[in-house]
Amino acid sequence: MNPRPLQERDDRExxxxxxxxxxxxxxxxxxxxxxxMWAVALRTTGNRxxxxxxxxxxxxxxxxxxxxxxxxxxxxxxxxxxxVNACLDRLRRDKPTSQLPERELSDGRDAHSSVxxxxxxxxxxxxxxxxxxxxxxLVDMHGLSVAEAAAVLDVAEGTVKSRCSRGxxxxxxxxxxxxxxx
Amino acid sequence: MVSTPAVPPRGPxxxxxxxxxxxxTGVRALLAxxxxxxxxxxxxxxxxxxxxxxxxxARERGDATVVPLHRPLPGWQRxxxxxxxxxxxxxxxxxxxxxxxxxxxxxxxxxxxxxxGAASSAQELQPPIAxxxxxxxxxxxxxxxxxxxSSPVGQVTMLATGTGYTASHLAEQARTTMLGPFDGSSSSSxxxxxxxxxxxEGLRECLxxxxxxxxMPAVGDVATYDGGRAVVVVVSSDTGQDVYAVxxxxxxxxxxxxxxxxxxx
Lengths: 182, 265
Description:
The complex is a heterodimer of chains A (182) and B (265).
Chain A: H1 11-19, H2 25-45, H3 48-65, H4 75-94, H5 114-126, H6 130-141, H7 146-153, H8 157-179
Helix pairs in contact in A: 1-2, 2-3, 2-4, 3-4, 4-7, 5-8, 6-8, 7-8
Chain B: H1 27-32, H2 42-60, H3 75-97, H4 101-111, H5 115-124, E1 156-159, E2 164-165, H6 170-179, H7 200-209, E3 218-225, E4 228-236, E5 241-247, E6 259-264
Parallel strand pairs in B: 1-3, 2-3
Antiparallel strand pairs in B: 3-4, 4-5, 5-6
């Protein structure tokens, strides 16, 4: 009887097969999760080049460290954690004072265009403390549950909730200031 | 096919949303509405697939950092191993003569390691940067010159000349600095703790992560590349030499080439 094709295996089976030496199992994991990991890297860094490097670092790291995956969290949570950590490594290395604003918010011209709004939000997000920014990226932008985000960030759920709450308030204040509203 | 579904952003009407995450500021809805970045770009998919293939190939070789004992070595590499053995005797015998019993046992233990241990020991026995013996021009395949082309299989030799390498003259500068005669004026001018690709072990990890086979000897130079701190490295293979520039922080998990491979002609 032929073994089931990799496409029909679940994520945990693929990790196990990879650890056992299957040459194609990790490729299937990559194919399955690459778009989602690209999205979280891009949302975390806000920079396509940096995100590219991060996600590449992360998948190579996952390839090598698959033996340390204990199966307690979902594979996708494990991968998210590796990607987020890879992004943080890069951000801290390239921009050690990542909590300080590198750029001023763009000026008020064309403030109503969606592109400018997106840029303003992105720039305001970059000005948040790292913990708040990551919580908002994972929960509000990436759609993870609080529990999932807590597992990715390795913090308590209550911490994620409070970071989200404080981050949203800070972000709203920055955007109000940006638009000249009281 | 089993696949992990994407997790859609949970909007305000989502019955499963967490009431603790109620957001009177409206920021949550704003962030959720910024749109999806889309699929991973095709060129990045190709790049990562190539990296995974390189990792897989290294894994199938047993261990990318271990030189297989059965690998047939080209002539210049055999000469290199002889050179390493001679160098090991030159350094090891006087050390044994002047050592206590425990030191002798430690030395003997090291000398009984396999080829990977030998490669490692060869690195341990390398003279410090300041006393590095540079390669002699045209000495590829000869023993004892200390350069990459004549280094034992898998050995990484480090320099720290502080040379200002540029993209337009990278190969030429690398040939002059790392493969040419040593004029005594390029001693280390770089300061700070060695980390990432700035030491031999870290540079080998960086190169391996970039897909450079572990048996290829390399000479790294802690220097600058186009004005930024970098390690410029010449890697020798059976067919020639290539030069790369990598960030000083390049390591096993953060491998990235600033330039290269550029063939040295």
